[in-house]
Amino acid sequence: MRVPIIAANWKMHMRVGEALEFAERLSHRLADLEGTEVVIAPPFTALAPLAGALAGTGVQLAAQNCHAEPSGAFTGEVSVAMLADLGCRYAIIGHSERRQLAGETDAQVARKLEALLARDLGAIVCIGETLEERQAGRTLEVVDGQLDGSLAGLDPERAERVVLAYEPIWAIGSGLTATPEQAQQVHSQIRLHLVSRLGDAGQRMRIQYGGSVKPDNAYALMEQPDIDGALVGGASLDPESFWAIIRFDVPPGESA
Ligand code: PGA
C-alpha cells in the first residue's frame, strides 16, 4: 500500500555537466518504470538544469537542505519558495552530515519541515544514531527523541508528504550496512511512534533506510515489512548502480 521511494543524495558531488550526463543515461530506462517513486537530490547548482533534463521522466527533484524563513538577510541560504520555483518536490532535512557539521538541531528541522509543508513541498527527514549510542543500547531512545523533536508540528492531514529516512550514522559512507533485521527493528519502532502520534496516517508514511545501500543489499533490505525505500549516497553517483537499486525487486543474480 506504500509506494516505494528510492532517493539519490548526491551530496557535494556532480557538476552540471556530470549531472546532465547522468540524466541522459538514466532517463530512457525510466520510461517503463512503474510502482516506484524515484527522487534525485543534486547540489543546488544542478537543480535547474536537471529539472529540464528530467522533465517527463517522472523523477522528482529534491534539495539537500532549505532555510525555514521565507526570505531575509541569510547569506548563503536558499528558501523553500526558491526551491519550488525550480520544480523541487522535496527537500532532505536533518541529514546527519548537517546535524554534525552544521549543528542542525531537531528544533531547526521542525521549522524547516513546517516551511516545506506550508508551500506544499514534501520532506525527507533524516534520523539515526551514532555508533556510541548504538553500543550503549540507546538506539531506540535516540530515534524516538529525534522523531519527537523533528516532527513536533506535524498533523495527520499533511503527514503523508513526509518521508522518514532512518540512517544509522555508523553505516553512512562506511560500507557497513545495518543488517536487514537491525534496520527492520528500528523501522518498526519508528512505525509504532508514527502510528501512535498520527493514527492511520502513520501507517501510510514511508520510511527509507539509508547507509551504504548498494545494488547487492537493496533487495534484502527492501523485503523488510517496514522498509519502504532507500536514501542512497555513494551508490547513487553511478547511473548503473542507482538503476540496480531502483530495481530492488529483482532478486540478486537475475538481471534488471
Ligand atoms: P551512503 O550515504 O549511501 O554513501 O552511505 C547515504 C546518505 O548519507 O544519505
Structural commentary:
The protein has 11 helices and 8 strands. The chain has 256 residues and is α/β, with parallel strands linked by helices. Helix 5 packs across helix 7 (139-150) and helix 7 (139-150) runs parallel beside helix 8 (180-198). It is globular and about 45 Å long. The model has no long low-confidence stretch (mean pLDDT 95). Bound molecules: 2-phosphoglycolic acid. 2-phosphoglycolic acid binds next to strand 8.
Considering the chains and any ligands shown, give keywords for the structure.
256 residues, alpha/beta, eight-stranded parallel barrel, 11 helices, binds 2-phosphoglycolic acid
Give me the count of strands: 8
Instruction: Name the hetero compounds present.
Output: 2-phosphoglycolic acid
Figure out the total of helices. 11
Please give the alpha-carbon distance between the first and last residues. Answer: 23 Å
Note poorly predicted spans: none
Biggest sheet: strands side by side, in what order?
A: 1-2-3-4-5-6-7-8
Give the structure's gist in a few sentences.
An eight-stranded parallel β-barrel has the order 1-2-3-4-5-6-7-8, surrounded by six helices.
How would you summarize the topology of this molecule?
Blueprint: E1 5-9, H1 16-30, E2 37-41, H2 44-53, E3 60-63, H3 80-85, E4 88-93, H4 96-101, H5 106-118, E5 122-127, H6 131-135, H7 139-150, E6 162-166, H8 180-198, H9 200-204, E7 206-210, H10 215-222, E8 229-232, H11 239-246
Parallel strand pairs: 1-2, 1-8, 2-3, 3-4, 4-5, 5-6, 6-7, 7-8
Helix pairs in contact: 1-2, 5-7, 7-8, 10-11
This protein binds 2-phosphoglycolic acid.
